[in-house]
Design a protein that fits this description.
about 280 residues; alpha+beta; Heat Shock Protein 90; 2 domains; two-stranded antiparallel ribbon; 7 helices; elongated; disordered C terminus; binds adenosine-5'-diphosphate; binds magnesium ion
């Protein structure tokens, strides 16, 4: 079947081209230039639309992840309160009753004393667990006292001595920012205890313009930092998930480490998160 006549190039134009008509050739050139320009403009508009959609989707995703982080934090606080109020209270009552029994008995048996000791240890464990899950001091008193408490815990649990320094400038932090930064510092300190082969670390808390900056320094074995989109060789999810969580609130993690020459891990975060509306409290 032959093509419709309209699609065929006009015979005259072909004849003119063949004869090398300069006016027609320059018309053709300017027409194809126009077409190329229109194509380029369309392409630029398309890429602007795509870019806009990607930015919008990223913003939505970040807002969603922020909501998830906030919900998780609420959940943690509830679990910690349940642990403390329910299990903690039951153990406290059991301890009191046992104490009364033992004081009635002039010579309590070694088994009774052992049970008393176990209850005491269980009470301490519950308290410490509740604190680890969600330290009330973080919300009641702020990030600095919570990090000071964490330093004591690190010493008690891992034998790591931690010095906490604060520049004493006011830091008006969202509750979510507090919680995420607290958990980040905790992970970094546990990393020092687990990997750095050193008995000491320093935590510096500073205000830099309208940003919170916390660095964790150790003079341990250091390590080779891989690009952040690749997991550390043999490493777990600690650093990647820390980085991701900081990303939700517009923060960042920077690691300066050299094998054999210690590690400085710096967490930075805005004071408040724009996407949500968590209660603002002063650190
Ligand atoms: N302060 C540190 N000193 C020495 N090595 C470290 C330190 N922090 C992290 N690392 C190295 O980085 C790796 C990745 O850490 P992380 O992502 O927290 O995973 P994990 O602690 O579960 O191994 C660790 O396995 C360790 O090799
Ligand atoms: Mg880790």
């Amino acid at each position: 079947m032959s093509a419709p006549a309209a699609r065929r190039p006009p015979r005259v134009a072909c004849d003119q081209k063949r004869r090398g008509d300069p006016a027609s050739a320059s018309n053709d050139i300017s027409e194809s230039n126009d077409r190329a320009e229109r194509l380029l403009a369309d392409q630029a508009a398309l890429s602007r639309t795509l870019e806009h959609r990607v930015t919008e989707r990223t913003r939505q995703l970040r807002a969603l992840m922020f909501q998830v982080a906030m919900a998780e934090e609420r959940e943690r606080r509830e679990i910690a309160a349940d642990l403390h109020d329910d299990l903690g209270q039951l153990l406290a009552v059991a301890g009191l009753k046992l104490g009364a029994l033992m004081s009635d008995d002039k010579h309590p048996s070694p088994e009774l004393r052992e049970v008393n000791e176990l209850i005491l240890r269980a009470k301490m464990s519950v308290g410490s667990l509740a604190f680890q899950i969600s330290p009330p001091v973080l919300f009641e008193l702020g990030l600095v006292p919570a990090l000071e408490w964490l330093a004591e815990e690190m010493h008690r649990v891992y034998g790591l001595e931690v010095e906490v320094r604060d520049d004493r400038k006011p830091k008006p932090l969202d509750q979510t920012v507090r919680a995420i930064v607290f958990r980040a510092v905790r992970e970094l300190l546990i990393n020092v205890a687990k990997h750095a082969k050193v008995g000491r670390a320093e935590v510096d808390i500073r205000r830099n313009a309208s940003k919170l900056v916390v660095s964790v320094t150790d003079k341990g074995v250091g390590f080779e930092v891989r690009p952040f989109d690749k997991p550390q060789t043999g490493g777990g999810f600690g650093l990647p998930s820390l980085r991701e969580r900081l990303g939700y609130i517009g923060g960042a993690l920077h690691i300066d480490a050299v094998p054999g020459d210690g590690t400085v891990a710096t967490v930075s975060a805005p004071f408040e998160v724009k996407t949500g509306a968590p209660g603002r409290v002063w650190s």
